[in-house]
Amino acid sequence: MAQFIPGHIQSAAEATDAGEPGASPDPSPFDEEAPSSIPPDELERLHGDLVGALKTVYDPEIPVDIYELGLIYKIDVDDDRNIAVEMTLTAPGCPVAGEMPGWVQNAVASVPGVGQVDVKLVFDPPWDMTRMSDEARLELNMF
Question: What is the pTM for the complete model shown?
Answer without folding.
Answer: 0.77
